[in-house]
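Objective 1b: paired records.
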Amino acid sequence: MPSLQAKHTRNCALGRPWTPFAAAVDGCTCALGPVYYVVVREGSRAQKLRAGRNRKEAERALRKTAVALDEGDFRMQTTIAFSAWGDRWLGSLERKSSTIRSYRPTINLASEVFGSTPVRRLTPEHISRLNRVMRAKELSASTRAKHLRVLGACLQAALRHGFAGRNPVRDLPSSERPRPERKEAAYFTNEETPRLFAEFEPGLHRVLFLTALKTGMRQGELIAL
């Protein structure tokens, strides 16, 4: 059966880092209180899952873990650094090479911030820190949002493979998520279109613009045609 333990700071008067849940607050002088963990043992291995500082939330996490164990849905998490997992994830993708290359800047940027931090220890605070770094680099809101989407997919895969217990990108509060500005697409009105074509002499350009108007083809497609 899983159990609850409390982790204390180095300066705590208790003088030891770990205590049982029941005695966690007895004599504790941690400024914010101890951090609770659900501990799962499997043979000689022990998995400590952070449950936060709230005692009721910790007890709820304990019950949830106990149910998962009873139903056979719990898997012990394997430790892997984010930088290693990011490379492994990119190498496993069944996508176009151009798509994978477009994901590489996200992994590189996240590796700068997370580095050797184990994937299973990443929290929403790590994601918030990454967002602050991206703002410092003056990346636009739309670019930051794209990086978070890619990172979310990367960490969701880590969860599926048993390297994490949750996806911190999904746990990031909505108030801390980048909000790209929505820009309305530019277009010609029914009144403007005749005026536009009145300026074209018969020839290639008129044909190209007329084809674009009738088919909705993009510039690259028109040039190829």
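Objective 1b, second protein:
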Amino acid sequence: MVTLTLAAGATVAQAVTASGLPGRYAELGLASADLSYAVWGRAADAGTVLRDGDRVEILPPLMVDPREARRRRAAARGRR
């Protein structure tokens, strides 16, 4: 978690850049263009304007489609 002070009208992209997290955790793929963002748990794009006190979340790409993961778990349970 990183606490930042940004100018009024700052965007999600500016907050992520100012945090320094993408460079610090490059091995996690945070520099990828495939990242998604959320503000307080709600989907947001890089251009979303932030308000005072907002929490920005960096969401890496999914490794497996959630529907496919559920199908695999159900199939594994059925084989028991």
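The chain has a mean pLDDT of 87. The longest helix spans residues 66-78.
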